[in-house]
Write a structure and sequence with these properties.
Number of domains: 1
Strand order of the largest sheet: 1-2-3-4
CATH topology: Outer membrane efflux proteins (OEP)
CATH architecture: Up-down Bundle
Structural class: alpha+beta
Shape: elongated
Strand content: 5-15%
Number of helices: 9
Low-confidence stretches: 1-7, 50-60, 471-476
CATH class: Mainly Alpha
């Protein structure tokens, strides 16, 4: 190193120092600013909900535990470990983080070691015979691009934003998988409840068939009543088979989600799942900032914005520092001796003179991609707002519908009891009983389906809000 300093003149030192100072200049290209995405202050569909106003900042929680179902907790926890879509997202995060490390490495000089051994023979001339020479070399070389215009800094900014976007994409997948698992589980429990209703219906219709058969044998009613009762029982059994098939398909889908082929889940009852409390009134739209997909699209916008600076830096000269230190000797034993030492140091400037508009086109492309990212970000925010409103409306109206259908079930059961009394007393035909039985069956199934929709709307609201909100409001 001392020998290198001896040959560095004052002008060389001043030039290199000036170049190093230039590398600290501001980066070209626009600095990121979050675009406007105007939304209402709160959600119109939350205006009628009970409870105090919600805090302004949400946070992710294990929201599924609010259903107080150990089987659901176990399934979601397993899905968040073994689901293959999530494993794919995790691998993409690792890839993006490696890209960041690669981008950061460009800030440091690369040092290469080269060693060689060459033996050559020159041709015979009129004045001398052929000469055989040995050439042994050992060299350390380096090249370092000065980031004068910020190309490397913008590239690093873009890589870091992409890495953050991949993390938020992973979180989006986690939220989606948890929501899908919860919805499939609730659907499974709805089928369990419908199967229980259908089995009760079969028992009831078997009892009715026994009564009708006795009355036909006693000559009190026509055999037509017997055939109608048999048909009604057969329809209930066909309904049972269809529900079992649908339950099996949902169970298979759950097995795929949790990454456990052959998964079996014991029957349960949908009505035993407690409903989480209703969301508080005055939900602020700022809660959307916690959604991982919104954060992902914003980071993609940051990356696209930084790529404009990378493209614009091509308009300016590329300045590099180069240097080498080594040895060269015809004899291997003398390679490390002082007379064999060699070194070089300098700088290089390359600037574009004519490229037929290539750089301008690349800047225009980067600018267009940034505008696309802005549109994508705004649409994601607007879609998120819509999804929250949709979930709030579904939650409210399904709650109202469930209450009305509960009253319908009670009225249908009373009607069936009266129809049976009238039939056994001979005041009406069996068709009236059949109609009342169908009404009860349909009302019970509809009531279960509405409760399932209400629970799924609750899951959708958790997903739409990115997992809930902080504080003890509503205990979400």
């Amino acid at each position: 190193m001392k020998c290198c300093q001896q040959f560095l003149t004052v002008s060389h030192r001043a030039t290199i120092l000036g170049l190093l100072l230039l590398s600290g200049c501001a980066a070209v290209g626009p600095d990121y600013q979050r675009p406007d995405a105007p939304l209402p202050t709160d959600y119109p569909e939350a205006a009628g909900t009970a409870g105090p106003a919600a805090p302004a900042a949400p946070m992710e929680q294990r929201w599924w535990t609010l259903f107080h179902d150990p089987a659901l907790d176990r399934l979601i926890e397993q899905a968040l470990i073994d689901n293959q879509d999530l494993q794919l997202a995790v691998s993409r995060v690792a890839e993006a983080e490696a890209v960041v490390r690669e981008a950061r490495a460009a800030f440091y000089p690369a040092i290469d070691l080269a060693a060689g051994d060459n033996r050559s023979r020159s041709a015979k001339t009129a004045t001398s015979g052929p000469i055989v020479q040995n050439r042994h070399t050992l060299t350390l070389s380096t090249a370092f691009e000065l980031d004068v215009w910020g190309r490397l800094r913008r590239a690093n900014e873009s890589a870091l934003a992409q890495a953050l976007a991949s993390r938020y994409a992973r979180d989006t997948v986690r939220l989606s998988i948890a929501g899908l698992t919860a919805n499939q589980y609730l659907t499974l429990r709805a089928y369990d409840a419908q199967l229980a209703v259908t089995q009760d219906t079969i028992k009831s219709r078997e009892g009715s068939l026994h009564i009708v058969r006795n009355r036909v044998e006693a000559g009190l009613v026509s055999p037509l009543d017997l055939h109608q009762s048999e048909g009604s029982l057969a329809a209930a059994k066909a309904q049972l088979a269809s529900l079992r098939q649908q339950r099996a398909l949902v169970e298979h889908q759950l097995a795929l989600l949790v990454g456990e082929p052959g998964l079996t889940i014991s029957p349960g009852d949908l009505s035993q799942l407690p409903l989480p409390p209703p969301p508080p009134s005055g939900l602020p739209s700022k809660l959307l900032e916690a959604r991982p997909d919104v954060r992902q699209t914003e980071q993609e916008l940051v990356a696209a914005n930084a790529e404009i600076g990378v493209a614009k830096a091509a308009f300016f000269p590329t300045i590099s520092l180069t240097g080498s230190l080594g040895a060269q000797s015809p004899e291997l034993n003398d390679l490390l001796s002082r007379p064999a030492n060699t070194w070089s140091m300098g700088w290089e400037l390359v600037t574009p003179l004519f490229d037929a508009g290539r750089i301008v086109a690349q800047v225009d492309q980067a600018t267009a991609r940034r505008e696309q990212a802005v549109a994508h970000y705004r649409k994601t925010v607007q879609t998120a707002f819509k999804e929250v409103n949709d979930a709030l409306a579904s939650l409210r109206e399904n709650a109202n519908g469930e209450q009305a259908q509960a009253a319908q079930v009670e009225a249908a059961k009373k009607t069936l009891r009266l129809a049976r009394v009238r039939y056994e007393a001979g005041y009406s035909g069996y068709l009236e009983v059949l109609d009342a039985e169908r009404t009860v069956n349909d009302a019970l199934l509809s009531h279960i389906a509405t409760r399932q929709s209400r629970l799924i709307a609750t899951v959708d609201l958790f997903k739409a809000l990115g997992g809930g909100w902080e504080g003890d409001v509503g205990q979400w």
